[in-house]
């Protein structure tokens, strides 16, 4: 995949010309008549123009410096599918007394009616806020009077105490953009590392010096005034099997590296990992919690009473922590309070759970470390220099006889060594109390594996009765166990499953190893169904793809500029044997197929036959890699297309005398 990463140092040459923000409500016939074919013939809406500006300013009333961000956009809507662009959600963040604030919201809809523009101004009462979590607030509003051809326009102002990350600017969104411009004012006392992520290049970038852009304690400060411009930007379409969209959208990111003090000193924010190691191992909510072996001194003999070696000790401790602390669904790399409180309350965030696990492993004299990482929905971490805000999660690592096991005790239904897929994302940083930290690949410990075996008999009434046995391991078992646990009982789960299977009636069921997570999850169903489409003059017609058929291609883009990330390799096998009521030969059937992906990336094998009055069907679908690069996307797309096309074919059996 072609991925652009540019690092800028904020020292630019003087530019002679630059653009400016546009006037609110200055809608033209060119806006109304804009031909989407110029940018994307399939677009449901198009950003005609957007402009943003960000600056650091002194708030005299609060006595602090703040980031002031102002945003302004104009969007043309073409059809009902584009109406959702009128539903605006602006996230802001808070942390204790530090809180971002939204103000000065202005929004209008413009419709061209009877040769003139009619403006519908949004009522301020339409604005409301929602507390998404204790850290996130959503400001929401919907523009009024939306029709096909409407042009919507809105603007707002944001005040933020967060200067470290400045304010990123996303050039790409879910609709194409004709023109996107970001203007920033960076005081000379602040140095930022600036990166352009994504597939597309800037159309232009310009800069000049803005004299005395701010004043602190009577001292005038100059600013670098910088424009970032991108034109004719394709929409970023999210598709299945991807990590965070922020990894791949074209966008500008800022990270504070150094601040010059008026007193003459400076504060470095871009630190070395040696600095970070010391801070984390000394941190009372991380390193100090890793040392709390004393909390497990009294209970450790009982935990280890049946353990004969280090691996069995680690597994026993892992099971103990899973039962002792329930995850409260909050991420984090630091303990919320301390692990003693989490143990007492039997509840805590991710770090509480896994720091407790690390301490308990250490109490058993096992070699345990912490791993900080970024989850799949949070993006990848910067490896050029430490940026602690990139990390949002912490797991445990235990080293036994030369083998390392990555553990997350927040999932009670996960076996030892199987990380939740949310953790399988690029690399994590291993934090050791005595040794320097280092990077480790965050890869799936096991593949997704499922096998379906059916033994049945076709009666003269056209119904098939038989038994379907499903064995699930790895991520397939974890997903299925979590689904079963959503219901009050396995019987209720099967009842709902029976309702979803329109053509199959479950007569009897047995599910084994729901809680025995180290074993395969086994489901046994006695079933009855009528797959026969037509039965005349002894001929039988039916579709054999009634067990987990592939009905939809997950890959539909003409071009995908980011990888396909399955999280884990997978293996699915279906075997069907149906005894027939007499002698039959195959008249028509799906083609026996054996297709593969390049570089042994995967395969699909299908075979059907009738032998000794038994119809046999076998199918294998394998993906041997967790990640496929963008260049491999066309092969995956074609791979699925061939499977789907073949699964449309029925089996025609002709009775012989």
Automatic annotation (TrEMBL):
Residues 302-379 form the Transglutaminase-like domain. Keywords: Signal. InterPro entries: Transglutaminase-like. Pfam families: Transglut_core (PF01841). The keyword Signal applies. It comes from the Bacteria. Residues 1-19 form the signal peptide. This is DUF3857 domain-containing protein. It comes from Pedobacter rhodius. The lineage of its organism: Bacteria, Pseudomonadati, Bacteroidota, Sphingobacteriia, Sphingobacteriales.
